[in-house]
Specification:
Length: about 170
């Protein structure tokens, strides 16, 4: 599922970005659209610098106090991903980049992301893990696929004795 989602994201996102840029360009004109994209990039770079420093300071303080920096690591990761999105030209990526970077929207994104990760972790603990067989390949039962059969593992087969006379030919 993830490879398909990534493929679609890399295929559809540029098309969506171009479509939105063209629509904005038709509404406000070509040069104002370019100026708006440049202004978003400059503003994004400034916010990334400011919020990146804040996230780094919070991470260092938590490490210095001997605490577990869960929230701080999540914030640092969101600022990093948001920064990449903000520096990518386009209005759609800038929208999500600002969501990840701004200090008043980042906690909401962090909570949503942590709930998603918690659900995935609990599903993995329940045994709902992805196996090779789920992708269309051959699934060979292994540990954790149910109750193991009692007793020693037996592989049925046939013993063929070699005939020395046929080996000489």
């Amino acid at each position: 599922m993830l490879p398909v989602a990534l493929f679609l994201a890399f295929l559809l996102l540029p098309v969506l970005e171009i479509y939105v840029i063209i629509q904005v360009g038709e509404a406000i004109g070509g040069w104002p659209t370019v100026a708006l994209l440049l202004a978003e990039s400059v503003l994004g770079a400034w916010i990334i610098r400011h919020e990146g420093r804040r996230a780094w300071r919070a991470l260092k303080e938590t490490f210095g106090a001997g605490g577990m920096p869960e929230r701080e690591l999540a914030d640092a990761g969101l600022v990093l991903v948001g920064g990449v999105l903000l520096l990518t030209p386009g209005f759609v990526t800038d929208f999500f980049g600002f969501l990840f970077v701004l200090p008043f929207t980042r906690p909401l994104v962090r909570r949503l992301l942590s709930r998603y990760v918690a659900r995935r972790m609990s599903a993995a603990r329940r045994g709902a893990t992805l196996r090779f067989g789920d992708l269309g390949g051959v699934h060979v039962p292994g540990p954790g696929d149910g109750e193991p059969e009692p007793g020693p593992r037996v592989v049925r087969g046939e013993v063929i004795e070699e005939d020395p006379e046929t080996d000489r030919r």
